Amino acid sequence: MRNRILGCIALLAVFATANAQNTDEVQLKKIYDEALTNGKAYHWLNHLSNQIGGRLSGSIQAQQAVDYTKMQLDSLGLDKVWLQPVMVPKWVRGVPEFAYFETTPGITTDVPICALGGSIATPQQGIKANIIEVNGIQELSKLGREKIEGKIVFLNQAMDATEINTFAAYSGCSGNRYLGAKEASAYGAVGVIVRSLNLRLDDYPHTGSMSYDDLPVADRIPAAAISTNAAELLSTSLKLNPEIKFFFKQNCKQFDDVQSFNVIGEITGSTYPDEIIVVGGHLDSWDLGDGSHDDGAGSVQSMEVLSLLKKTGYKPKRTIRAVLFMNEENGLRGGLKYAEVANTNNEKHIFALESDAGGFTPRGFSFSCPPENLKQAQGWATLFEPYFIHLFVEGYAGADINPLKNDEIVLAGLRPDSQRYFDHHHAENDAFEHINKRELQLGAASMASLVYLFDTYGITVAKDK
Hints:
The chain is built from 13 helices and 16 strands. The strands form two sheets. It has an eight-stranded mixed sheet, with helices on both faces. An eight-stranded mixed sheet has the order 3-2-9-5-6-7-8-4.
């Protein structure tokens, strides 16, 4: 009799598991179908990109984006929508930059450059000096002050084309952009030109944040990015004539901090309202393009998650928030402020998902969490196989949600195909015309599906906790 009872219990467990699996498959199908037929993300992004444009923190366009996205979240019939104040830096590029190199007196070649975010301006008349090429900041100490002083340093380290993970290739040389000016100034350089972080050869200079750290204002030197085609040309020309002079002029300026906002929309949980799930992207962008991939895509996908859950009739057990963070690009103030307020209010966040890797075809997710939670997420992988989502791996989740990290929360990042991402990253061609509607909506559906699963089942808690 005892064996029969145990057998019945095991059989019931199998049926329960199969039924849950079927329920999840049905809900995911609803989410993907709704996203691909009636999704709003592409429409929202069209407005952000083509009616507002680049949304650098502290700009009029950034405020217009705040107003627009709040209005759209209000229209979804959420339980709560609000603006979270945050002070952000205000850096302005000014009139377009200009640069050339001179092989002999009067013989010049114009090259495309752009100031790095946070850089000081050149003197009004610009800077003209001999230029010295290095492969990265690690080589500066080998040359020393004697060879660098009074010159412009050309940091010409290319992203590693053999690295399939393009974000790893980016990380491998992003230090040149971020700290190049500070390091070169220590050896008496008068300016820095950095090869754009881009895997292809083109004529678009790619901006991005840089830092002087604690360097006194009087010791700061201007820094600019140069397009990859121009970097190749300049490098070849220097090999033929090391006495080349380089000229550049830029007109950027740093102002006092100004107030901006994180935009937040919420569906309150029906069973566990105090357990919070966050899905987000950053609303700000650089000013050269319209920020469609970085990170207009992630912002509208996060809004779409709430829309898809409501449209498919799903009623969350836990509170789900879409957070459009401000100032990821040059300060991370939005992510830090959100975490600060969450800690002050003793909020319990169990899961946070960020989209900040472009609007290309989704491939899966990376997770920063305890091993048992990674195993839990990997257990859902078969549900995503019909949608060609196959990556459920340990890895970095995202800059804006990282301040929420603790020993229990699960952090995740959407991982689209990244091979073309850095063609557009921080450049003029990060534009709406390079967004594919279907790919964008697939990303939103994948995010909504993962949010649904974590909301339905919660997070696995380690036995020793």
